Amino acid sequence: AVGNILGYATGSFSGWFKILPFTLTSACNVDCANLKSAFFLDVIFIVITTCISTSAAHEVPLGSRDQSAPFSEEGHEQSSDVHEAFLWELFGTFRYFSGTIWIILIVTALTWLGWFPFLLFDTDWMGREIYGGEPNEGQNYATGVRMGALGLMLNSVVLGITSVLMEKLCRKWGAGFIWGISNILMALCFLAMLILYYVAIHMDYRGHDLPPNGIVIAALIIFTILGGPLAITYSVPYALVSIRTESLGLGQGLSLGVLNLAIVIPQIVVSMGSGPWDQLFGGGNSPAFAVGGISALAGGLIAILAIPRSSAQKPRALP
Q1: 161 and 13, same structural domain?
Q2: Cα–chain-centroid distance for residue 231?
């Protein structure tokens, strides 16, 4: 969440070309220079964090025969027989999954069918549908994209707050129920985006003026609220799968790989289908958000009705 806040704040700032003037050239205008500056900052932070992580973690290769390594002889013998899971082993785990795990995978797929249109088109939606601009045609689109980045920064603030409160919420109402409610909230936010776009196109500012403050504030509020469901999406499905697969004796890494398939496949579907789907209805982003809202609502109802609500257990006291 902290990284997202800093990253989206970088995208919402329009004066990077003044701080890094060498990015502004005859072939790269102000918007290009701001984007280029953000990439330079990304590279710097990636290099710094990579150096920190590689120097701070002192690891011993599993195949090492060094007796001073902090592994027991038994553990070393066991690790020597371990081999990485290949594709057929990944799909072979399907036959061990219970009905609840299949429900979690289905809800995960529906949830990400809802999220990917937003993650792909959020700032573009702000620039086109709310600010009425087009790329490389005036400043309305660029201003809308920066305002969308500001909304995503506020989204990350709520994401961080929700992350802190998530354990208490799941213990009180159950992880599946919280997940379902968050999906329904996400669907309502997408519905609000469609309504806001409908209101915007019936106002006469598009194409020649900036949107009214009320429209912009409403869009920012929607972006901000979506931080809560996003935090739950980033954690609850993984926790539920880990809990369910532990009793089956399956490796959690392999099981989480299967969960990632439930994320990647919807991403492929959205990436390949959202463009033609939007063009079919006039070229805007709203049709993809409509499909996302329906998927999120379906996933939320399934999570509430089909995922068992296990009783909350108090953590054991440390000896």
Answers
A1: no
A2: 8
Asked which of 16, 37, 54 is the last residue of a domain, the reply is 54
Q: Please check whether residue 147 is in contact with residue 267, taking contact to mean a CB–CB distance below 8 angstroms.
A: no
pTM above 0.85, yes or no: no
Closest Cα to residue 307, out of 143, 162, 173? Answer: 173
Q: Which two tokens stand for residue 75?
A: 């553990």
- Rounded to an integer, what distance in angstroms lies between the CA atom of residue 28 and that of residue 35? 10
CATH number at residue 262: 1.20.1250.20
Residues 255, 170 within the same domain = yes
Whether residues 21 and 110 share a domain: the answer is no
Same domain, residue pair 122 and 42: no
**Gap between the Cα atoms of 175 and 309, Å rounded:** 7
Task: Give helix then strand counts, H and E, for the chain.
Answer: 13, 0
Across the chain, which has 319 residues, the per-10-residue mean pLDDT values are: 81 83 86 87 92 86 55 42 54 72 91 90 89 82 88 92 91 92 96 92 78 92 95 91 72 73 86 72 76 93 86 47
Containing structural domain, residue 5: 1-54
Tokens of 242: 């880990």
User: Per-residue pLDDT tens for 51-105?
Assistant: 999 899 887 776 655 544 444 444 444 444 445 555 566 666 667 677 888 899 9
Number of structural domains (the chain) is 2
- With CA atoms as reference, report the closest residue to 269 among 130, 109, 62: 109
